[in-house]
Design a protein that fits this description.
The protein is α/β, with parallel strands linked by helices. It has a single domain (4-279), classed as P-loop containing nucleotide triphosphate hydrolases (Rossmann fold). The protein is built from 13 helices and five strands. The protein is globular and about 75 Å long. It binds adenosine monophosphate (AMP) and magnesium ion. Residues 76, 101-104, 132, 136-137, 140-141, 146 line the site of adenosine monophosphate (AMP). Residues 44-259 form the Polyphosphate kinase-2-related domain.
Length: 281
């Protein structure tokens, strides 16, 4: 497997990249099979857990104000839930702030679309996870004309400004666009129908959304073109092979955390004196 730096580079969206050229079955940076992936996954999950603990420890012991925000966007059945369960699930929940963004409530709709987003940002020292995000406001909203174009159009620039502010405040924003093929989505949705333990995940509306696939591709293209910035770039993760997408997101998080260059906070007390004091009790 390639290094996390290399995987991050391979998956990074570059200006000019086309959504229609993405191969959702590809496994960039990894030439092994599913079984090899499982082995690497457990090792890398352990590394991710260690880095998360370092982030948390530095916040607690040294007042380090930094944080990570993982933004997951993808069509239904792309595997967002699996990333949360298997990738984020490998780290200590104490240091994670998870939020899923569904259809806005009446209260949320009465506010600016970034209102609910700001409220869900990770506290310092934490990893925030957005299962869908502010990008819904330029995806489903654009595809379904939930607001007119003169309302959603300025949002790309507004989102960039918002993220620039986040980054300036010490948050590393890791944006992941999860790409599943139309065929694989059908298989996944069929599995949900066939399995009574997955009926709760099935939404009849997802079948209607499938018909809008080209419009979604257009909306994803515009999102990537206009909001993949130097300070908060998008990564395009092929998701037909779930074991790969989990490994890829693990590597993206590892890469982001390693860039923080964290070390274990030293004791702010006299260790030997404490040892003596403790032994005397
Ligand atoms: P799920 O993630 O499967 O629970 O579905 C949540 C649904 O809420 C998806 O269909 C999203 O597209 C939709 N949703 C999320 N955010 C918004 C938004 N800002 N406006 C309209 N629909 C949204
Ligand atoms: Mg759904």
């Amino acid at each position: 497997m390639s290094s996390s730096n290399e995987i991050s580079r391979l998956l990074r969206f570059n200006p000019g990249d086309k959504v229609v050229d993405v191969d959702p079955r590809a496994t960039p940076g990894f030439d092994g099979k599913k079984a090899d992936g499982a082995e690497v996954q457990s090792e890398r999950s352990a590394r991710l857990a260690e880095l998360q603990e370092l982030l948390y420890a530095n916040h607690k012991a040294r007042g380090d104000h930094r944080s990570i925000l993982l933004v997951l966007q993808g069509m239904d059945a792309a595997g967002k839930g699996g990333i949360v369960k298997h990738v984020v699930g490998a780290v200590n929940p104490m240091g994670v702030r998870y939020t899923a963004f569904g259809k806005p409530t009446e209260e949320e709709l009465a506010h600016h679309y970034l209102w609910r987003i700001r409220k869900a940002l990770p506290p310092t020292g934490h990893i925030g996870v957005f299962d869908r995000s502010h990008y819904e406001d330029v995806l489903i909203v654009r595809v379904h004309n939930l607001v007119p174009p003169d309302v959603w159009e300025p949002r790309y620039d507004e989102i960039n400004a918002f993220e620039r502010e986040l980054v300036a405040g010490g948050t590393t924003v890791v944006k992941v666009a999860m790409f599943i093929s139309l065929d694989e989505q059908k298989q996944q949705l069929l599995e949900r129908l066939d399995d009574p333990t997955k009926h709760w995940k099935y939404n009849p509306g997802d079948v209607d959304e499938r018909k809008l696939w080209p419009k979604y591709q257009e909306a994803y293209q515009a999102m990537l073109d206009r909001t993949s910035t130097e300070y908060a770039p998008w990564h395009v993760v092929p998701c037909d092979r779930r074991w790969y997408s989990r490994l890829a997101v693990t590597e993206l998080l590892i890469e982001a955390l390693e860039r923080l260059d964290l070390s274990w906070p030293p004791a702010d007390f006299d260790i030997e004196a404490e040892r003596r004091r403790l032994l005397e009790t």
